[in-house]
Each structure stands twice: as structure tokens, then as C-alpha cells.
Amino acid sequence: MRPDLSRALATAGHLLLLGLLLASVGHAQDAFVPASTNVGGAEYPRVSEDGRVQFRLEAPEATAVRANYWSGPKEDMERDAEGVWTVTAPAVAPGLHYYTFIVDGVEFADPSSRSFYGGSRYVSAVEVPEPGVDYYAVRDVPHGQVREVWYDSDVTGSWRHAFVYVPPGYDADLDTRYPVLYLQHGGGEDETGWVRQGNVNFILDNLIEAGEAEPMLVVMASGYARRADAADEPPPANRWEGLQRMFSVFEDDVTQELIPFVDETFRTIPDREHRAMAGLSMGGMQTFHTTLNHLDLFSYIGGFSGAAIPGGANGLDLATAYGGVFADPDAFADRVNLLWIGIGTDEPEGMYAGVNGVHTALAEAGIDHVYYESPGTDHEWQTWRRSLHDFAPRLFR
């Protein structure tokens, strides 16, 4: 082969390789799209299908900026000549992830992100899509509505706030009555969580349209409660005693105030066979406390990353817990249509061990229940979305 022809072919090969590399880089850049959780028109954060997120912040006078996933990596950001800080964070599990920016040691929400109530304050969050999964997305199906209500509680001596999901067609057929799921948020979050972070309305819309779940009402109330005469009580000795007090007040508010209000205001089927309760984390513990003390009111029970059985050396004395409801497995099965417990496989060791321990104790005692593990997720909303997606189709069948 002539030297000039050989050089020409080599040059052409190099140019082709360079073109392929540039195309690959361009495709990788194009793979990042604005997150669905951004405020209107904001280009950042940007997310990729493999779970990476590009963060950006204009802070020309800052000297150090970090992107701070609450339950994930903390990444130092790089500054350009214009004072714009950027970083591409490593891949995280799909779902909604809380984050903030730490600017010169001070934590800030991202002005480009919508705010969500978590950690007892409003913070930023980025939605990382799960490829091929749309059960919690807005789809072309009939949609229910989320309504905001207030009810006057003698238990707390205050007006209380809640959201109520009504299924598609609720206003079209005024003769139809519906079962009710009472669904609770976790500690540090509030009654907005299941709608704004959990997408409960879209999950139910999609399940109902597919015929996989019964049309139902979903009531989401504030899990924080203080008794009307609490000022006369001595302060709790420790955090656990404080939680137990709050759980007791919440139990009374749900059973004495909220349920009667919902049954009077909405077209419910007001009996235990058509009433369920579930919750995540703290809300799961509240669910166990409320339902197992009131099996006259509930027959479906769910704990998402949260379940508590008090007493015994390991906190699992099934013979005496909740008045001995677990002492007779056959009697329990006759009274409870569903006991459901779930946890994420990557949750903190203590949380995973606690929920898994409840499951193990129930199984050894012969208590019929469903145990679910969300693969690859932490103490986070993707665990609880998946939990609801498994739990809701089992109700009222």
C-alpha cells in the first residue's frame, strides 16, 4: 500500500474514532434532563437515567459549597470564573431525595427546587426516576381529588388539619359509599407528605383504573397531637415517654374525633370491615398503637418501616402486647383481615433489625401477616411508595 494512502486511511480512522467519542460525550450530556421537582423553568438540578444528579448554584462570593444529600453522598462543588458552582453527584437509588447546599458552613435550600416538609422544616428534594416504572406518575387515567379539611378536636382543644383523597367518580355517583384508609406520615414530616412526596393520589388513581385496588378514600392527618390540658402535665422524663404521650393523644384524636368527622362528612362505609390504617416510620408505630388497641374500629393494618410491639426483654412480648391480641393466632386471624409489615433492604441497621424482628416474632408465633422488603432503598419515600403500592391492592377485597 502506498504511504500516502496508508496515512489517509489512518487519518480517516482517527477522525471516525474522534467522532464516535464526541458523539458519546454529547449523548452522555444529553442524558441529563431537568428534574421534575424543579421550580418552573429551572434547568438544574438535572438527572440521568442511571441516578446521577448535576447540581448548580450561583454563589459568586462563596468560598466553599457542598451538595448535601441527607441520606447519601456529600459532594464538594467546583466554582467557575463567574462564581457558578457545579458538581455531578454519584448515582443514588431512584426516588425522592432530600438535599441542601452547604455554603461556607451554612445550610441552605436550593432556590431552583420546590420545597418539601421534611426533617421538621422545608428543604429541597430531587426526584430521581426509576426506569420503566410509572405506578406513581401522572398517567392518562381518571383522577381522584385531594381535598383539604379542618376538624374541631375536643381531645386537643384545637382545630386539626387533614387531607382526604376521594377516588375518581366520587362526585358523579352520589349513592356510592367507600371504604377508608387512614394513612400517616413519619416523624419530621407532616400531613402534606403522602401527597407531595409520596404521590399517593397517583398511586391510587393508577391502581384503581387497572382494577388492582378498590376505590377508597384516603385520610392523611397530622400525627402530632397535644392534649387540651397538657399544660398541667409534668414534662416527660425522656424522649420515649414524650412519644408515648403523643401516641396516646393521637390515638384518642383519631378514634374520638377524626373518624366520626370523616364518617359524617364523606360517604364512607362506617364499619371496621371497611376501615384500614397504615403509616410510615413514626406513623407505622402510631398505626400499631391505634389499631391494635381498637380492633373494634379497624381490620386492616400496615406498618411501612415502622412497627412496635412493647414489652419483653427484646420488646417483642406477643403474649401481653396490646392486651394480648396476639396470644391466640386463630382469634387474631378472625379479627384482622390484613397485617402488613415492610422495610427497605438498605435502611439503617437498627431500623431494619427492629422491623425484621417484629416479622420474625410474628412468624414464630404463627400470626398470619405479610412481610415485604423494598430492594435497594433506605429510609426514604421510594420504600414507602413501593410499600403502599403493595399494600393498597390487598385492602377491602
Main attributes?
six-stranded antiparallel beta sheet; Immunoglobulin-like; eight-stranded mixed beta sheet; 25% strand; alpha+beta; 397 residues; globular; 8 helices; 19 strands; Rossmann fold
What would your notes on this structure say?
With 397 residues, this protein is an alpha+beta fold. It folds into 2 domains: 33-128, Immunoglobulins (Immunoglobulin-like, Sandwich); 145-394, Rossmann fold. 29% of the residues lie in helices and 25% in strands. It contains 8 helices and 19 strands. It has helices spanning 3-30, 193-196, 200-209, 239-265, 282-292, 329-335, 349-365, 381-391, and strands at residues 33-34, 46-47, 53-58, 65-69, 74-76, 78-79, 84-89, 95-103, 106-108, 115-118, 121-128, 145-153, 158-166, 180-184, 217-221, 275-280, 300-304, 338-344, 370-374. It has an 8-stranded mixed beta sheet with strand order 12-13-15-14-16-17-18-19, with helices on both faces. Strands 4, 5, 8, 9, 10 and 11 form a 6-stranded antiparallel beta sheet that branches. A hairpin with a 2-residue loop joins strand 8 and strand 9 (106-108). The chain starts with a helix and ends in a 6-residue tail after the last helix. Mean pLDDT is 91; it is low at 5-29. InterPro entries: AB_hydrolase_fold, Esterase-like, Ig-like_fold, Ig_E-set, Mycobacterial_A85_antigen. This is Esterase. Keywords: Signal. GO terms for molecular function: acyltransferase activity, transferring groups other than amino-acyl groups. Residues 1-28 form the signal peptide.
